[in-house]
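Entry 14. Two folds queued back to back today. First construct below, sequence then structure tokens.
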Amino acid sequence: MSATQLRPPPVRTSPPPARSRRRWLSTNASHYILWALALLVIVGSVVPVVAASVWSTPLYESGGHLTWDNFHALLTDRSWWTAVANSILFAALNTVGSIVVGVAGAVFLTRTDIPGRRVLTAFLLVPIALPGLVLIIGWAAMWTPAGFASAWLETHTFLHMPVDLYSIPGMALVAMSVASPTVFLLCRGTLLSIDPSLEDAARTSGASPLRSLLSVSLPLMRPAITNAALLVFALSMEVLGLPLILGFSNKIGLISTYLYDHWVNDAQQGLVSAGAVFLLIAVSGLLVLRNRLVGDVGRYTTTTGKPTGVRILKLGRVRWVVSACLAAFLLTCVIVPLAGVVMAAFTSILSPFISPWSVLTLDNFSAVFGNSLYTSSIVNSLLVAGVGGALSTLAIAVLSVIAHRSRFRFRGSLQQGMLWPRMMPALVTGMAFFWSFALLDRSGAIRASLWGIGIAFAVRSLALGYSAFYPALAGIGADLDNAARTSGATWWGAMRTIVFRLVAPAMGASFVLLFVAMLNDAEPAVFLVTDETPVLGLTMLQLAATSIGGTVAALGVIQMVITLVVLGAGRALLGVRPRA
């Protein structure tokens, strides 16, 4: 009896150390180190911007003291309040127009029988797949008062461009062509989740197909529409390329151009930092509200039941009118601007009084490849997008498995941290890393290299890559890596041999999206680029801000071709498609 009584104690005392050891392995030092580094780079970079806004001298200079003078100078500057008012008006017009076009496109292209739905949908989504700056250059080449298309219409027809692009409504019209596809995608997903039996109930009560669509499905889209409106409004507050290109001639300033001008031309870094803090608070507040509404969308749509399929409503003869209206909009806002970029790139002069066929040339491309600034911009952007995209993809994969596949106690903050860049305006991102590098690297070596720009671009695009990678990770059952753990594998070993291999296609998709985003990005480079580190997006932006000529159009065509080739390869190999 005494022998049997001595056996249980070792059995009872051995499990606690084993559980403690497993707990330590799941939250070991590497998790803490990676968590601290990630949040320091992603979130901590904003701290120097706030510090610079309340410091009397630039942070890279010695001396100085705490002060509110920067905020006082900002709030008492009439041009600042003019920029705020213009930004609000521009954002409101862009939001209203994008909602009208996006919702109408989602309804008619998803739930009705209008002719050419697939073709119209493809053209509507083109702006998502292409760099926004290319589309803006096309608008400037074709639809400005002296543009090719507007001048041709006034010369040969009774039609004319009703909106002056060198105005806030004109800029909002251009922005609407870029933002409305995002609204379309957000609302289309909600429409596809609505049970058609609800519309059938309205039909049995005597409602027409169109009436049932407007009275049943459209109200169910209200949360998604509100969500999309807040997103578009927030993104409109940080637009830089559009007001620089179209608003410059009439001296129309927005918040973004105010910050850009006072940094580049006036070197008022404390004032600009104070404005950046204001912009960050405003945009973050809007996107926090938007993220809260995402939950409301899910709760709202589940009350409709499980959909049984998409019901196509027949509009009768009206379908031809609707199809013609959508085709006219896409022709004006997408096809003509893109044609303008190509025509300007391959002609020596783009004029409605001269046949483009008679002035075809490759001189613009020769000028691009013969200029060291332009070739360096292309090569640097490819390096930043290629190397930066690959390293960012690897970082996203590692941080995602810690945030979602471990028992690390701070994994929730890591999940929110990877989504934080969605709330940070691009200009604020660039400024944050400028001040961070100024404090941490007094020699300026990092800021003067492509690594500094690459880090800023990577953080800017982090949420995009994470959004593409996480769904695939969530679809892999935890029992697979748990089985490896029970066979003696370490946590990192299970991740490396099981999880990372299964999510390799998702990592490829994330890389493609990151490559395209980093290739076309421009705003963060405003504060980081040097004469030795030009990048394609910013070079095009600065060139287009002074003149819309064949050279900038040729750069736009090159940027567009690279983007389409990468997206085409991604779709062929990995099934990657542009997303909102």
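Second construct, same run, same settings:
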Amino acid sequence: MTSQVSSPAEQSGEAETDEAVVGEQRTAPARQGGEKEVRRLERVIIRFAGDSGDGMQLTGDRFTSETATFGNDLSTLPNFPAEIRAPAGTLPGVSSFQLHFADHDILTPGDAPNVLVAMNPAALKANIGDVPRGGEIIVNTDEFAKRAMAKVGYETSPLEDGSLDGYRVHPVPLTTLTIEALKDFGLPRKEAERSKNMFALGLLSWMYHRPTEGTEKFLRRKFARKPEIAEANVAAFRAGWNFGETTEDFAVSYEVAPATQAFPPGTYRNISGNLALSYGLIAASRQADLPLYLGSYPITPASDILHELSKHKNFGVRTFQAEDEIAGIGAALGAAFGGSLAVTTTSGPGVALKSETIGLAVSLELPLLIVDIQRGGPSTGLPTKTEQADLLQAMFGRNGEAPVPIVAPRTAADCFDAALEAARIALTYRTPVFLLSDGYLANGSEPWRIPDLDELPDLRVQFASGTNHTLADGTEVFWPYKRDPHTLARPWAVPGTPGLEHRIGGIEKQDGSGNISYDPANHDFMVRTRQAKVDGIQVPDLEVDDQDGARTLVLGWGSTYGPITAAVRRIRKEGGRIAQAHLRHLNPFPRNLGEILGRYDKVVIPEMNLGQLATLIRATYLVDVRSHNQVNGMPFKAEQLATALKEAIDE
């Protein structure tokens, strides 16, 4: 006999997920021999929170990896300070990792955690406002000393003053239990304390029936040079699991079945946006049969691409860590001139420094990928937080008329396909291309289906190999700016090819011959030709999801795809009618965008900026779009976005 039970979200009045209403959950049949009750849930949102030195990112990453192995759909949101080691025990020093996993298709890391693991008072205070009433809180009681609580403004202990009565609190002395579990290893107390995150991981792994073998293998591999540390972490991990199994405080564990219906058949792996982008660049170079060259200067949150590509010399990848941003793109542009698929990676402040060389790439008409992992600005701003505020910089942030195509991925996994598309445009049209990702996509992760090789586009190009123009006197010559009539791309002449010597540099060139030219009419022609080349880039038509003849369209770009789609699903679940479209190509826009905008009475554009796409849409199509903007360093929450969209529909 089974009985109906509710999920933590339902008990807190938050039964609706980001994508669908949670259905019934049922308790597994009671087991004999005093075994604990197991409840089946459709989805869970867990947030690990502690000091930036407590290993919360590692803990969340390991839980995510095992969840991916298990077959759940998932989405993550790492959130950490910009400082390398923020002050311990303070609110600015709190690091967190949120994971949403489910037995069905999901799109966001979730609006609010069902479970909060708080390693100290600062972690509790910084995150308690996001936990719905009735949610579970696992607290490391060892850290709740008077001094630690006073540091974050607690006059009395929240574990004793009744302020947490609306939650299901599990007080666990994580530090003490970890030290006790490792007493036979002979480690100093401080060294043993560092494994408390593995104890917490073991406890959560027991609670949600996560696989354990992968984590144990990971720990032994990570600490291969220090086997005693590896075994201590494994012991702490196992101790956390055993604590959940034996303690009376955790009377229930939970199961979230694999998302068997959420994915098409194939081989999947968990992947972050920066890793997917790195793999996309490598795939593009192989499909183009060109060496990949990265000229880059480290900057958060783009540095992981440099780190990853440096591992793949076996695929013909060359990485150059330059002394500054300008040198990085200068080297990349030189590699493009030499016949490589050239890339430079950065974030917003680095784009500003690279702007002159981007203009040079426009003038030289060479293929170059500029990968901008956007972050909060201006200036240094919020280096570890996300934002979409570089769109107008990518569009116009150069002197003179210097048009550059812009491509933006929509999800972490989509960064792979966006890299291939950016490479296609750059190689086909001989132009620099912006790829606008952001910190949310870069650090977040989700399942990714590994594509078959025959699914990848053919990006091979032909280098110029001989003369291409006949002078009036019959002389055969090479003209570096003689264009393909279909793409307006100029020939790509690799240095050293006999007979193809030509001038290179930033001064205006004469159409065709490439000689230096100050002729006003020629300059006007070249400016208009470069613009026409970008305007003529072939991009797919924009697809619209409109099943009910809605009168309101929500239009997005980049990483807002997940929250927007989740909000649209909520509205439709409640009987509302709304259409959705999402832009990958921001310059040029898809050919049918104007016609689509004209179909709807209202167009709403949510952006993590103050309305940059809205500005472009208004100027280009004279449509009075409505902006919904957020610039707090965090992605949209689906519930808040759904409320804003419903208000727009009802006006």
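Quick look at the second one. The chain has a mean pLDDT of 93. The longest strand covers residues 43-51.
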